[in-house]
Design a protein that fits this description.
- With 314 residues, this protein is an alpha/beta fold.
- It folds into two domains: 3-226 and 301-311, Spore Coat Polysaccharide Biosynthesis Protein SpsA, Chain A (Alpha-Beta Complex), CATH 3.90.550.10; 231-300.
- Helices cover 50% and strands 12% of the residues.
- α2 (47-56) links the parallel β2 and β3 (61-65).
- The longest helix is centred in the last third of the chain and has 33 residues, at 267-299.
- The radius of gyration is 25 Å and the shape is elongated.
- The two termini are 26 Å apart.
- The structure holds uridine-5'-diphosphate and magnesium ion (MG).
- Magnesium ion (MG) is lined by residues 92, 94, 96, 198, 203.
Length: 314
């Protein structure tokens, strides 16, 4: 199997059929072996009956139905887990992505990239609740992860399957796969893709997504930078905080001895206690993190590195 298309769907009854035929004609024109995996993420609008009707006549269309609405990331993850293609292409099920872009994504993969991320250069969404928050989030993600893309949120991307095999998704994390993958040495690039306004159904997200994305960004940044060495992060903060505490403590003493400013009336004393306490907490947190990192990597036999090739080593 060369290509797997993975589509998360939540209440997209009026889009499913048109999406299926657009996908079908794009894929048939490519003359490669393919499958379409549609994941019904607990729809309550009858999307599933449309899907099962379509799948009855086409063995290339595979359907997974989740028991309840688990969210887009989980739905995509379910699709990735059973996709069999060498190249996996997720896309939205609301016809906002264009199946006609698929051959171009594949061309990029065949140039040697491991991840090709779609860039909705001319995005057809509302400006205030979508485009502006997304612009800010993209700039922040690009800066913090060091993987420079214009549009992390575009679902339409292409992955070599090895890239996805090593990555487990949580929260809203599907948008961070390129960043997580590049941490394992994947070659990542982007490609401008078409984007259309939503014609049927409603968007499943509001402005509150921005906060969720920012929180996940913190997780990803931490995982990328410190998951194998938490003490390096927390220990550093701990040492700085303790040093600051020693500084304010000395200041308090100095004021007491040479300026006759009583210690118990000096706010610096409280700051000192607070800083020393925090410093110790940070270091202990770092040590606990180290313990967790060992449980995480060793219990699963996960190495902390990724090998690309081996020669004379079987
Ligand atoms: N989706 C999903 N589960 C959810 C929310 C969304 O499977 O809980 C699907 C949805 O059906 C669509 C895709 O994820 O195919 C993107 O969602 P949406 O179009 O609402 O997001 P937007 O394009 O507005 O960012
Ligand atoms: Mg959409």
């Amino acid at each position: 199997m060369e290509v797997s298309i993975v589509v998360p769907l939540y209440n997209e009854r009026d889009n499913v059929e048109a999406l299926y035929s657009a996908l079908k004609s794009a894929l048939e024109a490519m003359h490669c072996s393919y499958e379409i995996v549609m994941v019904d993420d607990g729809s309550s609008d009858g999307s599933y009956s449309v899907l099962s009707r379509l799948a009855a006549d086409d063995a290339c269309l595979k359907i997974i139905r989740l028991r309840r609405n688990f969210g887009q990331t989980a739905a995509m993850s379910a699709g990735f887990d059973c996709a069999q293609g060498d190249i996996i292409i997720p896309m939205d099920g609301d016809l906002q992505n264009d199946p006609a872009d698929i051959p171009r994504l594949l061309d990029k993969i065949h140039e040697g990239y491991d991840v090709v991320s779609g860039w909705r250069r001319d995005r057809k969404d509302t400006v205030v609740t979508r485009k502006i928050p997304s612009m800010l989030a993209n700039a922040l993600i690009s800066r913090l992860t060091g993987v420079h893309l214009h549009d992390y949120g575009c679902t339409l991307k292409a992955y070599r399957r090895e890239v996805l095999d090593g990555i487990n998704l949580y929260g809203e994390m599907h948008r961070f796969v390129p960043a997580l993958a590049s941490q394992f040495g994947a070659r990542v690039t982007e490609l401008p893709v078409n984007h259309f306004p939503r014609l049927h159904g409603v968007s499943k997200y509001g402005i509150s997504r921005t906060l969720r994305v920012i929180l996940d960004l913190m997780t990803v940044k931490f995982l990328m930078a410190y998951s194998t060495k938490p003490i390096q992060l927390f220990g550093k903060w701990g040492v700085y905080t303790i040093l600051a505490g020693i500084g304010t403590g000395s200041m308090t003493l100095y004021m007491k001895l040479f300026e006759h400013f009583s210690m118990n009336r000096n706010p610096l004393l409280i700051l000192t206690a607070f800083l020393l306490f925090m410093g110790v907490q940070f270091i202990v947190l770092g040590l606990l993190g180290e313990l967790n990192a060992r449980t995480y990597f060793e219990s699963q036999g996960k190495p902390i590195y990724v090998v690309k090739d081996r020669i004379n080593l079987d």
